[in-house]
Design goal:
It contains 18 helices and 39 strands. Helix 2 links the parallel strand 1 and strand 2. The relative contact order is 0.09. Its EC number is 6.4.1.3.
Length: 696
Amino acid sequence: MSSRLTEDTEDKGQPMFEKILIANRGEIACRVIKTARKMGIKTVAIYSDADKQSLHVKMADEAVHIGPPPANQSYIVIDRVMEAIRATGAQAVHPGYGFLSENAKFAEALAADGVAFVGPPVGAIESMGDKITSKKIAQEAGVSTVPGYMGLIADADEAVKISNEIGYPVMIKASAGGGGKGMRIAWSDAEAREGFQSSKNEAANSFGDDRIFIEKFVTQPRHIEIQVLCDAHGNGIYLGERECSIQRRNQKVVEEAPSPFLDEDTRRAMGEQAVALAKAVGYASAGTVEFIVDGDKNFYFLEMNTRLQVEHPVTELITGVDLVEQMIRIAGGEPLSITQNDVKLNGWAIENRLYAEDPYRGFLPSIGRLTRYRPPAEVAAGPLHDSGKWQGDAPAGELAVRNDTGVFEGGEISMYYDPMIAKLCTWGPTRDAAIAAMRDALDGFEVEGIGHNLPFLSAVMDHPIFIAGTMTTAFIEEQYPEGFNGVELPEQDLRKIAAASAAMHRVAEIRRTRVSGRMDNHERKVGSDWVVTLQDVSFNLTVDADRDGSTVRFDDGSALRVASDWTPGDQLARLTVGDDSLVVKVGKISGGFRIRSRGADLKVHVRTPRQAELAKLMPEKIAPDTSKLLLCPMPGLVVKLEVEVGDEVQEGQALCTIEAMKMENILRAEKKGVVSAINAAAGDSLAVDEVIMEFE
């Protein structure tokens, strides 16, 4: 295949822009800086008080302070961003995603100052960025659309009336929304009324626009989107699709390209329709047309995102096209150098979004300092090299690992912004290979100090429905109806971890016998017989060690060979157990290890037979009773209290609303009761597990 990116990025003299300002923060700002640097373009970062020490500020050539932490006082204040542009002399602005990326007034302000917008024309933003207008245009262009009400909705009563006319379930959405903000699914009048108000509040806080529309919610849907690329000369192409069906609270968690569901004919039909829609509004930049696809491969236009998508890396990995570079070149007036015939889908790519959310607390936001942040090493064995140059087909068995991030070890996760801290991507020649690479990459990703969703992502990668590629947007809701409580590993995996733990424990014990200053004639002997207990299962085994590793023999006569260079104190262990590789995170606990692998968080006790016998006699610690308390599940701000002291509440009744990381979370009663005390008020900032109210 020809080296498209090589041709595009070879020396062509001076770049079309000398300096670009990135009107964003976090990982997407870092991502844009990388490509701009590759193209020889200087970059300007903007930052709030909360982001003074952030990675994007350190990476940029210049940085300008623009205000307090809340986005509505800094990152989405157009005047402050314009001041930063004028002060630095930036000739172009890349908006990333979110914030001002789909704000027509911002694009107009840039045009008025003669600054290039690395995005589509104002007309395209206005028509496609507004979901009501875009759906009308799609209908006029002959694009299949979902039934709904596109007019403005005055109040909750009208929302309920419209919902009944459409028929439940319905999707209540913010017209100017994106990223799952201002979006609710309602299955009843009560949920429509409640969802309408919450959507309006979130939309106003996140986008400064509280307009809401309602459409039919397609059951058993798949969320599949088409990446388009258009220039200002009338050229337009599509770069395949992305499967984005695994979502939580309408926000994508896992994406892949291509989709395991589409066939070539459906892909072509969706792609051609997406390009036709883009051309109908004079689109010029990278954009994404999102579709809902049912089980019969009927597809319906959902919305068009007039910006770079969060999940763009998976498209880059299977096409070799640097989308950020193409956006910059299009903004500079260059025509596309790629035709539709040039677009070839090579291999498979998967992206997992690492969120600062605690899966064991219902995926609620978590903030704090990253005491440890060690992503797996990036491996450029796939189609897109770090330099952006095409590598051709990767040799069989070789895989790519890519991590787009905006944080660093010692940095702080703030309550003011989106909880995503990294996008981990893997590429493989096949889907199975990409999944296998992702499993190992997740196991090797070390994050400490905050709650995070790494265990959940590992669980998804091993889930039979995901492996089969038959997931829908209801996957998380259906497969984890009671939330995520960790993974129960099968006995085969437990045996491997037990063998590895016994071998590591023996190494640690031998280290402890070699401590200096011990008394004469008090040499401690390390035995070979151990009892390993994990996940309520015990294994009696014997460890025979030699220079190359250990042979672990179980009492049923089976044996596993364990080899590793792990030493006591290492928090990550890479082992070979039997014929398989095993990557585990290792923490020390009394009498053993805390082992995390494949979504499981295990307390592994390694004891002598006598210690194991005595351990069975120890009483179990009883957890404190919190059934009569409403605890704050995450750090956040009290938006509203729904009850008063003395009120009788029913199971499922809304008690209060907490806002954190731009999302409103309604806390509900778990059972019937009477409110005896309220310890917080609207406007209070609360910590995790702080008592909000008490019940009789």
